[in-house]
Amino acid sequence: MKKQLSAKKIMKLANSLEKVYYYDTIDSTNDEAKRLINTFSGNFLVIASHQTKGRGRWNRNFFSPGGSGLYFSLVLRPAIPTEKCALVTVAAAVAVAEEVEKFSGKRADIKWVNDIYVGGKKCVGILTESIFEKDKPLSIIVGVGINLTTSDFPDEIKEKAGNIGEVDRNAMVAAICDKIACFVENIEEKKFMNEYVRRCFLLGKDVTVYDKIVDKIYTAKAQEIDEEGRLVVACNGERLVLSSEEVSLSVSKF
Ligand code: BTN
Fold first, then answer.
1. CA dihedral 145, 148, 149, 152 (to 10 degrees)
2. Residues with pLDDT less than 70, the chain
3. Quick one: CA torsion of 140, 225, 193, 184, rounded to 10 degrees?
């Protein structure tokens, strides 16, 4: 059954995982990953059929109804300098976009920094969280939520949300985990960067920027992605380098 999630099957298919924890229902797989983080020292996956408190960036809700989506958190322990953590999000976006495209047969684009769009609709959200603890190796939690057949979206997201259709669930999750782990292991090589830029549909477009630090909204033209995965925009003749921790973006035309 390709629709039935199985910890055993994922474990068998994914080389990068040392353990898989499956739940029918959980509050948030990222939160469960945090609770489990010190019980095991290797790479592991937390996956659920349903989340009651799925979280997105800026503590927004991530709609996670039972059975119609994939909700999982990959925990990695990479030997990378902390300043490279932001690149993990970029690497994860490429890994997810490539595998979503391969398994669904539909083109997957990236909205900076880590939303995946299929057919002009947001179908995937990624939430990366880093855990730094004194005298412990760095842990990174890459949380991925994918709408497979979800269609009954709440009013506030129904205009922009979509789904990718049914896929071989266990095989796609395993392939995504292996690709993220491989990119992160070789993060210095930045092999995912060209592909990120190629799939990033904001470049060349006018975007509305909300700067959360100074609580300001302005419009700008998206120009390029720099080596650290930041977005470079032009605003009133000025070149601004935006970090995903500080701003959120919207675009009027896909
Ligand atoms: C976003 O759209 O801002 C990111 C959404 C990330 C959702 C995934 S679902 C699995 C994992 N658990 C969570 O609570 N969030 C992430």
1. 20
2. 1, 136, 252-254
3. -10
Pocket of ligand 1 contains residue 125 by CB under 6 Å: yes
What does the block give as tokens for 140? 């990174």
Closest ligand 1 atom to Cα of 55: 14
User: What span, in angstroms and rounded, lies between the C-alpha atoms of 228 and 175?
Assistant: 25
* pLDDT of res. 146: 98
| The two three-digit tokens of residue 157, written as one number | 């997201």
How far, in Å, from the CA of 239 to the mean position of ligand 1?
31
| Per-residue pLDDT reduced to its tens digit, 158-181 | 999 999 999 999 999 999 999 999
pLDDT at residue number 1:
62
